[in-house]
Write a structure and sequence with these properties.
single chain, 29% helix, globular, Heat Shock Protein 90, 3 helices, alpha+beta, 142 residues, five-stranded antiparallel beta sheet
C-alpha cells in the first residue's frame, strides 16, 4: 500500500480528538474524497473510533498515543486508526439496550462506512469509504 496522504499522532487524551477531527476532515475535502457539506457522517465515525481508541484501546493511559492515517485507494479512502489495545471484532459488537452504555459508536461506524475491519497484522481499525461526488454544482442566477 502507498504511503498515507495524511498522518497524525495525538496524545491519548479526549481533548486532543477535536483538533484531529478538524484536520482530518479538511484533508479529506482537500484531496476531494468529500465535498465541504459531506463531512458530518464521516466526522461522527472518526470521533467514535478515536474516542474508543483512547478509552478502550489505550485504557485512558495518557502516556500512550493514537495514530491516524488516510490512504488513497483509488475509488475510496482507507482510514487506519492505531492504538495499543489488543483489537476487537467490530462485527461482534451489538447495539446496547436503551440506557445502557456501549456499542452504539461501533454500530454507527458500521452503518455509515462501506467497510469496517480490525486488521490484525497492522493492529489497527480500518474504515473504508467510497469517494463521494465532489463536484461543485453551478446554479444559473438570472
Amino acid at each position: 500500500m502507498d504511503d498515507p496522504f495524511f498522518f497524525r499522532e495525538i496524545p491519548s487524551r479526549l481533548d486532543a480528538v477535536s483538533g484531529l477531527l478538524d484536520e482530518t476532515t479538511a484533508a479529506l475535502v482537500e484531496h476531494r474524497f468529500l465535498a465541504p457539506g459531506q463531512t458530518c457522517r464521516l466526522r461522527l465515525c472518526l470521533e467514535e473510533a478515536l474516542v474508543n481508541a483512547v478509552r478502550h484501546g489505550n485504557q485512558g493511559r495518557q502516556d500512550l498515543s493514537v495514530r491516524l492515517q488516510l490512504h488513497d485507494v483509488g475509488d475510496g479512502c482507507l482510514v487506519r486508526i492505531y492504538d495499543r489495545g489488543g483489537g476487537f471484532d467490530p462485527h461482534g459488537v451489538q447495539m446496547s439496550e436503551p440506557g445502557q452504555p456501549g456499542g452504539r459508536g461501533v454500530c454507527l461506524i458500521r452503518h455509515f462506512m462501506d467497510t469496517v475491519a480490525f486488521n490484525e497484522s497492522e493492529n489497527c481499525l480500518e474504515l473504508w469509504f467510497h469517494r463521494r461526488d465532489c463536484r461543485v454544482e453551478e446554479h444559473d442566477h438570472e
